[in-house]
Amino acid sequence: MVNIGFIGIGQMGTWMSTHLLEAGYEVTVYDTNQEASNALKAKGALVAASVAELGRKNEVVITMLPNSKIVESVVAGPGGLLGAMNAGTMIIDMSSSYVLSTEQLAKQAQAAGVTFIDAPVSGGVKGAKAGTLTIMVGAEEDAYMKALPILQRMGKAIKLVGKTGAGHALKAINNYLSAASMYATTEAMLLAKKLGINLEVALETINQSSGQSFSTHYKFPTFVLPRTFNSGFSLDLLLKDVKMVTAIAKDTKVPILLASIVEQIYEAASITGGKNQDHTEIIKFLEKLSDFSIED
Ligand code: NAD
């Protein structure tokens, strides 16, 4: 069994690295938040004092970090992985990162003799905890086969979707759809409420009709109606995904009209509602705009 390094022990990484430990891998973790690393130490992980130390001793390193800028600094910045890892090793970036940055990092890694592949995930904290994530891999076939046994410990539906970068591209596209559908559901539910329709009845009916989605089946009944807003996926991380879609559409000259509006909506919600919101709190933005709440 290869030794695995895991960088980014947050909402998702905590559970993903726990599954690797439970599968019997030797796992070394690193996070700028010492408390996060210590929680994994208690489960049997080793804790590295730096990214470079982690890179030197592991054959496979997984990153599960907030965004591409941070992935770039951890992989290719001063004291980063590429200056420390041995030739023939592999980095798997499971964060939701920007495709052009990923392609650039893969080139830099190749020059250092390291394989860099992308394997972002869908399924949220619930899927991370259960080990049932969908994993979208961008890689050459041989690198994919090498990573597969490790990925199978964290996910159920694992798909090779194209060459390096393709996983990150598809993940951003998926989350654009998810953001648009979440916001459309929010508008629809507010309108239904205004028209005097009970929202539990509305959701039950829609879930047997053509308007159904992951938002109507899962997010609304679980996090919005009870107003717990604890999906574990922040509004700013979702906004990051939508911004990646509008940026790549601009770079590739594809008109993507609705995505630009969705981006503006989540941007405004982020500004008015603050940095620490869950993405399901998008309803609060619309409630403020309309001076009406689904609780009324
Ligand atoms: P998070 O903010 O909970 O975790 C990120 C972790 O990275 C934190 O523990 C943070 O301390 C650590 N970190 C930040 N900078 C670092 C650095 N320079 N070196 C080492 N550690 C550093 O985020 P999350 O919700 O776990 O998401 C991680 C990634 O997964 C993101 O790219 C996100 O878009 C994606 N994602 C999240 C979800 C979800 O439901 N939360 C679902 C799918 C994909």
Low-confidence stretches: none
How many domains comprise the coordinates? 2
The CATH superfamily label of the largest domain reads NAD(P)-binding Rossmann-like Domain
Q: Give the integer mean of the pLDDT values.
A: 97
Tally of strands: 9
How much helix is in the residues? 40-55%
Per the CATH scheme, the topology name of the largest domain is: Rossmann fold
End-to-end separation? 57 Å
Family: Belongs to the HIBADH-related family.
Domain 3-hydroxyisobutyrate dehydrogenase-like NAD-binding: 165-286
Pfam families: NAD_binding_11 (PF14833), NAD_binding_2 (PF03446)
Keywords: NAD, Oxidoreductase
Summarize the structure.
Keywords: NAD, Oxidoreductase. By secondary structure, this protein is an alpha/beta fold. It is built from 13 helices and nine strands.
Describe the protein's architecture and organization.
This protein has 2 domains: 4-163, 3-Layer(aba) Sandwich (Rossmann fold); 169-290, N-(1-d-carboxylethyl)-l-norvaline Dehydrogenase, domain 2, CATH 1.10.1040. It is built from 13 helices and 9 strands. Helix 8 runs parallel beside helix 13. The protein starts with a strand and ends in a 6-residue tail after the last helix. The protein is α/β, with parallel strands linked by helices and 296 residues long. It is globular, with a radius of gyration of 20 Å.
Blueprint of the fold:
Elements: E1 4-7, H1 13-22, E2 27-30, H2 34-41, E3 46-47, H3 51-57, E4 60-63, H4 68-76, E5 90-93, H5 99-111, E6 115-118, E7 121-122, H6 124-130, E8 133-138, H7 141-151, E9 155-162, H8 166-194, H9 199-206, H10 214-224, H11 235-251, H12 257-273, H13 282-290
Parallel strand pairs: 1-2, 1-4, 2-3, 4-5, 5-6, 8-9
Antiparallel strand pairs: 7-8
Helix pairs in contact: 1-6, 4-5, 8-10, 8-11, 8-13, 9-10, 11-12
Bound molecules: nicotinamide-adenine-dinucleotide.
Nicotinamide-adenine-dinucleotide binds at residues 7-13, 30-33, 36, 64-66, 70, 74, 95-96, 121-122, 124-125, 232-233, 237.
